[in-house]
Amino acid sequence: MGSVGLLFVGAVLFINGIMLLGWVEPKSAAPMNYFVGGLQIITPTYLIFTANGNADTILSAAGLYLFAFTYLYVALNLTFDLDGTGLGYFCLFVTISALVYSGLNFVHFKDAGFGVIWLYWTFLWLLFFLVLGLKKESLSRYTGAVCAIQGWVTAWLPALLLLTGRYDDYKDQLAITLAVFAVLVFGGLYATMVRGAKQPAASSGPPPSSHVPA
């Protein structure tokens, strides 16, 4: 069941990412955040209630609420045009929690694939904190690009592997590939979108929304 929710996390990350890039009107992204936020409430609640006290199942399911509350917070901010500061500092809480979950996946669950994926999410939610909580608007478009890409590589791809029963066959290769991909792609994007943008250049497209992370 969790893999189904992960598939649609990919969709909302992609939508929110391209919204930050200015390709989608902010209010038009609100429904997807409500849909996926609601799904990510139902999924872990079901998993916890049917876990029969299994501590590992409960531990894994509890992490899903971090994303559920993020998406619902985003949806409310977009719907009511709220200031993004509170959401930004919630993203700091998620950042710290995601780092812990990454360590748990590496050490406790022996799952390097999701260990790396949780590191991706740590990085992404840290960017949300910087953009929303600390108002580092120069990182907005970069954050949008990272968010949109992560929708595919940290959610859609592993969800399909899980749904087809192939994740265990490829999780180690996935971990290595994602680690290399992050350094090359996100490093390259930073050089072109953040450092490169510091050079005088004409602005292209509308400014991204300050309300929305993933």
UniProtKB/TrEMBL annotation:
InterPro entries: AmiSUreI_transpt, AmiSUreI_transpt_sf
Keyword Metal-binding assigned: no
Membrane topology: Multi-pass membrane protein
Predominant location: membrane
A Pfam entry, by short name: AmiS_UreI
Ranges in coiled-coil conformation: none
Transmembrane segments: 6-24, 31-51, 57-74, 86-104, 116-134, 146-167, 173-191
Keywords linked to the UniProt accession: Cell membrane, Membrane, Transmembrane, Transmembrane helix, Transport
Subcellular location: Cell membrane
CDD domains: UreI_AmiS_like_2
Family of the protein in this entry: Belongs to the AmiS/UreI family.
Protein name: AmiS/UreI family transporter
Record lineage: Bacteria, Bacillati, Actinomycetota, Actinomycetes, Pseudonocardiales
